[in-house]
Specification:
single chain, alpha+beta, Jelly Rolls, 5-stranded antiparallel beta sheet, 35% helix
Length: 367
């Protein structure tokens, strides 16, 4: 397993290479997020505005906003592409086999928890810091309205006919709002995702940034039940959890039920993470003799998520790390009861797996 320092070097190299390719494609992701080039990007966008913004004697503010809106959408999609490309390229450089990237899901989860879609507004007076604007009854204002989408906005008290200086002000204010309340959060999310990639590929224990969760539920490890107890050679229930010894070549399922409300206030709860804290034994110094192969998530009688083709093993029973934390995106709603089922393959005789706890995190969504 590569060291954390070695892995971080390859992660940074892959991210910079991905940024270079994207910047050459004029996507402006890396200029905006990492290169400090947002002012030039905005000037370029404004200078390329079509004359239609002043057509028919009225100002069409959507024409002014359209290039910024398009750039924001591109930054969003490029940020996800960048972290997934970084995952793939880092694995390649480290000599690892290809594997599905969890990076973009992690990025989505981080952004949602950090409240990146918060509402915000700004007046021309606040933006320019001019007292005469603040004292004016015609405060020119732009606001982000996340209930309509991450890039939705509305404006008020802007004149029906606006000259070039006025349109330039509108253009820069909208870009400022997007930059401060959206792009800076995306940049922070990308940075945290690169740390997550480093921790995952070096198998380094890390402190998971849980962010703003609405509800967290946990059940202790000794509450799990085996689906086929006759395939177990021994069961130990201790204060610290439950240890299950399985027959050779048996695939056994272990089930946990987590109690939770389906709503919190007037908001629905959506599942964003599940945690399975576990420990497996080694049959010899090199090989683990039990592997978690599947994690299935149930909403009552309905299976809603299948995490398959896993090969999880080792000591992951005390702290959150890249092996016992699983990110779910898009975030499903749970209406009739949360069940987590864990499929374990016992590779040798009388080997064991221990569970210390099972948990889940929820975020909220408006009804």
């Amino acid at each position: 397993m590569p060291s954390e320092q070695e892995t971080e070097k390859y992660v940074r190299k892959a991210a910079i290479a991905g940024c270079t390719i994207m910047s050459e494609g004029n996507y402006m992701l890396c200029d905006w997020m990492f290169g400090g080039g947002c002012d030039k990007a905005i000037e370029k966008l404004f200078s390329s505005l079509p004359d239609s913004w002043k057509a028919a004697g009225k100002t069409d503010y959507w024409v002014v906003a359209q290039p910024i809106f398009d750039m924001m959408q591109k930054i969003w999609s490029d940020s996800h592409e960048l972290v997934d490309q970084t995952w793939d390229e880092t694995r390649k450089q480290l000599g690892m086999s290809s594997a599905a990237s969890p990076a973009s899901s992690y990025l989505d989860d981080w952004l949602t928890r950090e409240g990146w879609m918060e509402s915000a507004e700004i007046t021309a007076g606040e933006f320019l810091e001019l007292p005469e604007f603040l004292a004016s009854s015609l405060k020119k204002k732009i606001a982000l309205t996340p209930e309509k989408g991450p890039w939705a906005w509305h404006s008020s008290k802007w004149p029906e006919v606006c000259d070039s200086d006025c349109v330039n002000l509108f253009h820069k204010m909208l870009a400022y709002l997007y930059g401060k309340y959206r792009v800076e959060r995306i940049a922070d999310g990308v940075e945290n995702t690169l740390k997550y990639i480093t921790a995952t590929l070096s198998n380094t224990e890390y402190s998971l940034d849980l962010g703003l969760i609405a509800k967290a539920v946990w059940v202790h490890g000794h509450a799990l039940e085996a689906e086929t107890p006759e395939q177990l050679t021994k069961t130990d229930v201790k204060g610290w959890g439950g240890r299950f010894h399985g027959e050779k070549d048996a695939l056994n399922w272990f089930h946990a039920a987590l109690t939770m409300p389906s709503t919190l206030g007037n908001q629905n709860l959506r599942l964003s993470k599940v945690f399975v804290l576990f420990k497996t034994e080694k049959s010899n110094p090199q090989y683990f003799s039990a592997l978690i192969k599947h994690i299935h998530i149930y909403d009552g009688a309905h299976k809603i998520i299948s995490l398959d083709n896993l090969s999880l093993s080792g000591d992951h029973d005390e702290h959150l790390d890249a092996q016992n934390c699983h990110f779910l995106y898009p975030f499903p709603s749970i209406k009739t009861g949360l069940g987590i089922s864990i499929g374990v393959h016992f590779l040798s005789s009388n080997t064991s797996i221990s569970f210390s706890s099972i948990g889940a995190d929820f975020i909220t969504a408006k009804n």
